[in-house]
Amino acid sequence: MESGSKRASWGWLALLIWLGGCATAPAPQRTPPPSAPATGEPVVAFVGVSVLPLDSERVLADQTVVVRGERIVAVGPAASTPVPQGATRVDGKGRYLMPGLADMHIHLLPGEGTLADPAGQQLALLLANGVTTARALVAAPTALALRERVARGEVLGPTLRVAGPSFHGESVQGPEQARQKVREQKAAGFELLKTHGGLGRETYDAMVAEAQAQGLPVSGHVTPDVGLARALEARQQIEHLDGYLAALLPPGDAAKVEQVEFGEVLTRMDPARIPALAEATKQAGIFNTPTLALFEIVASTGAVPELRTKRALRYVPSATVDAWSRELLSGPLAEAPAAGKHRFLELRRQVVRGLDAAGAPFLVGSDSPQLFMVPGFAIHQEMEAMVAAGLRPLTVLQAATRNAATWFGEANQWGTVAPGQRADLLLLNGNPLEDVRLLRTLVGVMVRGTWLPRSELDAKLEQVAMAARATEG
Ligand SMILES: [Zn+2]
Asked: What is the pTM of this model?
C-alpha cells in the first residue's frame, strides 16, 4: 500500500485539509488546552451547553463555559473554547445553563448552618432548588454569623444578604430612636433595612433620611401612614405590592386598606389608575417584589386538600403543615367572602401587568417559610404565579437573576453567565425561557464555583426529610 498508497495517502491528506477548509471556517488552530495554572483552584467546564445570559431571549448554542475557583473565566463556542487539562467536565449536550436564582424575600431560620438545625436545612432546600443568593428580610439573631460562615465557605449555602430587625410601630418610638437604630444596624453589619410600616410619617422620614446618610437601602411594607407616593419618593423598595391597592381609590377616599383586603372597599378601586402609578414607579426606579404565590394561598378557598399533596411538604414537620392548614381552614381567612378574595387577587395581577407595561422592574421573593411556601420550592411557586399573572418567562427569569444583582448594585459581579461573573449557575434539562416550570428540571447547581450534581442535591434533600420526620418522634 506504501508506494502507490503513499502518493495516494498524500492525496488523502491534502484532500482532508482542503475539505476541512471549505466545510467550516478554516479549522481553528487549536491551541493545546492550557493546563490549570497552579492556583490549586478547582476548574469545572460545562461542555456543549446552551447558555442563557438572560439579557434577551437569545440562546447561545453549543458553548463551553469554564469556571475556575468562584469565577467564570470563559464562555465561548465549544469548537474553539479549550477545556483546561485536569478540569472536571460536565456534559452540557441538550442542556441549558443559566444564572443561579436569587430569592429576595426569605425568613432566615435560626442555626449554625448544619443539617441538624433549621437554618442548615433551609439552606439545603434553597440550594436544591437552584437558589444561590437569598435576601433575608426577617432573620434570626444567628443570621450575621451564618452569613459570614457561608461567605468563608465553612457552610455550603446560597450567598446570604441580611436585613436588620424590622422598623415598625412597636419596635421604634419616634424619629430620634429611628435614627439611632439605623446607625446601630449599619455598625452591626446589616446590609439593608426592613420596615413593616406603622411608624408614622415623622419617624418614617427620619428612618429614610438616616438610611440614605448611612448608605443603607430600605425595603418593605407600605402602610397608610406613609402611602405609595411617599414611599416612591423615599426610594423605598416595595414588598407585596403594598400601597398600590389603596392608591386605586378615588382622591379623598380615606378608607383604610389592609395588606390582605377582602372587603367592600375593593369595589371602589379603579384599575384605570394603574398606568399612572406604574409610570411613577418606573420613574422612581423602584423594584417590586410582588410575593403573588403566598397571597394567592392566603386568599384561596378550599385549597387545603390540594396544598397538602405538595411533594415539598415531606421536608416540613407535619405539625407545621397542620398549623398551616388550620390557619386557612378557620378564622378570618376561611370566613372571608370568595368574591372579595377573587377581586383582591385580580387587582394585584392587574397591578403587576401595569408595572410590567411601564417597564418597572421586579424582584422574585417567596416570603418562605410560610403557609405552604416551603424554602426553595417556594421560589418556583412564585415564578410560576408571576407568569400566570401575565409576565413573560424572560421578565420573570430576569427578576430572579440580573435584577437582583442590579438592585444590590452588583450587576458586574453576578446575575448572568459571562467571564468574570461569580459562578452561580443552574444546569437544566429544559429551557425555562419556553416555560419557567422547566426550572424544576435541575441537573445540578453551582454555587460560588462549587458544583452540586443532582445526586448531591437529592442526598441533601433526603437528610432534610429525615430531620423533618425525626421531629415527629
Ligand atoms: Zn416576609
From this structure: 0.91
